[in-house]
Design goal:
Layout (H helix, E strand, L loop, with lengths): L1 E2 L2 E6 L9 E5 L6 E5 H5 L3 E3 L6 E3 L6 H23 L2
Antiparallel strand pairs: 1-2, 2-3, 3-4, 5-6
């Protein structure tokens, strides 16, 4: 997924989506950095671990926020389905 000309790779490591780690390459040196989904959605800044460049994490066009909303809706739907079987 590209956000502000950066490609983010998401790996689910926690049921808390905000704590989910995303990886992205520094636009200057290409080093793979890690931030949380909450940091990206909060438009926080990140300092590249290799070159020290300050990177503003920005969800251009809110594409990542829309994906998170979609995931949350699907989880809610799944909870409803599971709830029906647990009666």
């Amino acid at each position: 997924m590209k956000v502000n000309s950066m490609e983010f790779r998401i790996s689910m490591t926690s049921p808390d989506l905000d704590a989910t780690e995303v990886e992205f390459n520094c636009p200057l040196c290409g080093f793979e950095n890690t931030a949380t989904l909450g940091e990206v959605l909060g438009r926080e800044t990140h300092i590249c671990a290799r070159c020290g460049r300050v990177i503003r994490l920005e969800d251009e066009g809110d594409s990542l926020a829309r994906k998170v909303d979609e995931i949350n809706r699907r989880v809610e739907d799944l909870d409803k389905i599971i709830g029906r079987y647990n009666r």
